Amino acid sequence: MIPSKALSLVGLATKAGKTVSGEFMTEKEVKSGRAALVIVADDASDNTKKKFRDMCEFYKVPIYFYGDKDTLGHAMGKEFRASLAILDEGFAKGIRKHLETKDNTIA
Fold it and tell me: Where is the Ribosomal protein eL8/eL30/eS12/Gadd45 domain positioned along the sequence (predicted)?
């Protein structure tokens, strides 16, 4: 798989300290209003996907389903991750631009 621009930006955002990952932290940031974008792995459980889809819809946070847990974790330089939140509006905008050109599902 060719490394995508979106994943490179996730890596940059992580280095800049503008991401959180894991179900608990992602949920916390969405509910606090700090999350600018949520990305959930395509291979996350249906329960997890539904939970984040509903939560993001309620809190008006854009959500994308992209890649698999390994890919998302690798982009952040960590173990596998099922969900992550981008906390910076600029990074979120750039990542969304690249994800939208890739025919991904948007909730």
Answer: 7-93
pLDDT tens digits for 60-105? 999 999 999 999 999 999 999 999 999 999 999 999 999 887 555 5
Q: Amino acid identity, residue 107?
A: A
Looking at beta carbons, which pairs linking 1-8 to residues 24 or more positions away fall under 8 Å? 1/71, 4/98, 4/102, 5/98, 6/66, 6/95, 6/98, 6/99, 6/102, 7/67, 7/71, 7/72, 7/74, 7/75, 8/75
The contacts of residue 47 (CB under 8 Å, 6+ apart) are none
What does the block give as tokens for 61? 């946070």
Residue 105 DSSP code: E
Parallel/antiparallel/unpaired status of strands 105-106 and 19-21: unpaired
Q: Taking the model in full, what pTM does it have?
A: 0.91
What gap in Å lies between CA 80 and CA 88, rounded to an integer? 22
Q: Please tell me the distance from the alpha carbon of residue 41 to that of residue 90, in angstroms, as a whole number.
A: 22
